[in-house]
Amino acid sequence: MTRLVSRFGAVNLVRRERPLTRDELAHYVPSVFSEEKHESRSDRYTYIPTITLLDNLKREGFQPFFACQTRVRDWGYLTEWKRSAMPCSRCCYRHRPN
């Protein structure tokens, strides 16, 4: 089994033997659906929503079976908008030929 670089001490994660649904992704890794880049990014930074990448991978036959999102340690300095945009998310895919 491949180990992730991070141990993810405080995470939301979901792992299934079947492809994950959008509802499961929304519940466990809501940052996947973030639509805007973080305000600290420059104007030259091009933001591509993670869900767009997921949808494109699904069209090519890849499905997510594992997803996790790290938690922010100090919520005190974050505004409500930043809370949904800050976490990092990862998904693992398997190819399912048609």
UniProtKB/TrEMBL annotation:
Q: What is this protein called?
A: UPF0380 protein yafZ
Q: Which domain of life is it from?
A: Bacteria
**What Pfam families does UniProt report for this protein, alphabetically?**
DUF932
